[in-house]
Amino acid sequence: MAPPSIDELAAVAAALAAPGKGLLASDESTGTIGKRLEKGGIENTAENRRAYRELLYTAPGIGGAFSGVIMFKETLGQCASDGTPFVEVLRRAGVMAGIKVDEGLVPLEGGEEGETSTRGLETLEAACRQYVAQGARFAKWRAALRVEEGRCPSDLAVKVNAEQLAEYAAICQAAGLVPIVEPELLIDGPHSAETFAAASEKAIAACVAALWRRGVALEACLLKPQMVVQGTECSAPRAAPEQVAAATLRVMRRVVPPAVAGIMFLSGGQTEEEATRNLDAINKLAKEEGRAPWSLSFSFGRGLQASVLKIWSNAPPSRASEARAMAGALAEANAAAARGEFAGRHPSVTSAPGATLHETWRGWRTDVDPAAAPPPAPALALAGV
Ligand code: 13P
């Protein structure tokens, strides 16, 4: 069967960016989800990972809150306990299945300390064909960029990651998947919100230019950036949601063309409550000013899961229904924030105030056991891209 046309992919992107809906990022690699499960005393087995994801995918009301769910390749092939494939469970709820297609971060040769590029391009085309056959409609590729005043992201990191993201996006579109382009700027460090804003502008602008040069149809992709926030170790008082909203919208307006269907923010180590309140403020401000050409929504991982994991890991399966209810409440709260209508107490406040799964440096230094780290990605393949 011929892959979908760009118009068909654009329709999928528009549906993913439907007003008031967002994405659940449940695509943690086996290692990353394992670390989180083990923290809660749960063994990192395929069955425990499956059971945890089933809980998320069967939470009440997810069809009203999520347009799509991003999965890890293992999960894409797994089934609910009644034997129904997860892809079908989601489809019945009106939710599209997506797939993380990158193979993780590797040190960037020639970059500053801790800078990375992302692996997976060499095998991407064949992998995409398989994921489409398994029912995936969209894909995600994460680039991670360090921010450090005057040093990071380096020009090299910006360029290499932008070109990798563009190459990934082109391959996905040719295979029939809507690409989510994720240039994540890491919030770790003492940088100010201004430094973060400048870094965001530079990184996103480079991505957009690379997408354009590579012939990627912008209306058939989604952008997944970080909100413009100060570093976790910044000494200034925490910015109010209204300040985060103003800074974020300023950057997005400067560099994201209106053709892009949706800007689906990651939670990136903010607490669940911060992520929701900041997203809500972004949408309130965009509405008030009456000018935002794209949908402004969420593609949260930790922001939709920290409290759920906390409840579930304490005593599965006896607290499964409580954990499922929390997953539903977080989904609903963020859907409200995507409409700029969140009000009242945040669901996480009841069971896990300030819950965050923030992990310092979600870069190669902690994501990958250095002993098992693959060799640096050949910066190579990109030269002619
Ligand atoms: P967080 O919301 O936990 O940052 O994760 C989103 C994601 O998918 C990062 O790639």
Report what the structure shows.
This protein has 385 residues and is an alpha/beta fold. The protein has a single domain, classed as Alpha-Beta Barrel (TIM Barrel). It has 15 helices and ten strands. Helix 12 packs antiparallel against helix 13. Bound molecules: 1,3-dihydroxyacetonephosphate. The site of 1,3-dihydroxyacetonephosphate has 10 residues, from loops. Pfam families: Glycolytic (PF00274). It is an enzyme of class 4 (lyase). One of its GO terms (biological process) is glycolytic process. Pathway: Carbohydrate degradation; glycolysis; D-glyceraldehyde 3-phosphate and glycerone phosphate from D-glucose: step 4/4.
The CATH class label is Alpha Beta
Task: Catalogue the unreliable spans.
Answer: 363-385
CATH architecture classification: Alpha-Beta Barrel
Main sheet specs:
8 strands, parallel, barrel
CATH level-3 fold name:
TIM Barrel
- Mean pLDDT level: 91
Alpha plus pi helix count = 15
